[in-house]
Amino acid sequence: MGDSSTAEGVGAAVTLGLLAAWAVHDLEELATVPGWLRRNVPELRRRFPLVPEPVWRRAGRTDPVEFTAAVGVMGTVVAAAAVAGRLSGGRSGFYQSALTGFGLHRLVHMAQAAAVRGCTPGSVTSPLLVVPFTLWARGRLRGAGVLRPTRPRDLAVGLAAAGAATVAAHGMARRLVGAARRAS
């Protein structure tokens, strides 16, 4: 099976491309999150007083090592989804939900940028990479007959899966980094 759409499904550019697009996007986040939070949390705390104080304390103390570990855990999830997509010719529900979640999570980045009226981590690659890749991949899946028309439920599942994976990745990273620090 090549990279063109076939009756068997879609090729590697569509399925494994999810991992590649995610990696580029998350490299932006790795490069920007800790410093951006350090510089911006005091101003954000003043501008958004309704956000609970524990959220600001946690954001202001973002550990770069823990954040990097969380990105690695999430990378494992995305890699598994991309491989499931490749092995199924794009038919895997896990892969399709991950692709949907990847595309929808751009809304979070774009909403953050709009709320602060400026550039935020992830807001550069969201419109330049996340949106175009997601639309292209979904178009290829539809063209190959392996993606049904999107229902509101599909959007909710994709966004919920992305949110749950993010929370789980950060929880796992906290445990891994904590265990590694206790062992050393």
How would you describe the overall organization of this protein?
With 184 residues, the chain is mainly alpha-helical. The chain has one domain. The chain contains 7 helices and no strands. Helix 2 packs antiparallel against helix 4 and helix 4 crosses helix 7. It is globular, with a radius of gyration of 18 Å.
Terminus-to-terminus distance: 48 Å
Order of helices and strands: HHHHHHH
User: Main sheet?
Assistant: none
Mean pLDDT: 91
Share of residues in strands: under 5%
- Number of distinct beta strands: 0
Kindly name the structural category. Answer: mainly alpha
How many domains make up the coordinates? 1
Q: Low-confidence runs (pLDDT<50, min 5 residues)?
A: 1-7
What gross morphology would you assign? globular
With helices defined by DSSP (H or I, 4 residues minimum), what is the helix count?
A: 7
| Rg calc | 18 Å
Classify the helix fraction into a percent range: over 70%
Protein name: HXXEE domain-containing protein
Pfam families: HXXEE
Organism: Streptomyces tendae
Gist?
This is HXXEE domain-containing protein. By secondary structure, the protein is an all-alpha fold.
List key phrases describing it.
single chain, 184 residues, mainly alpha, 0% strand, globular, disordered N terminus
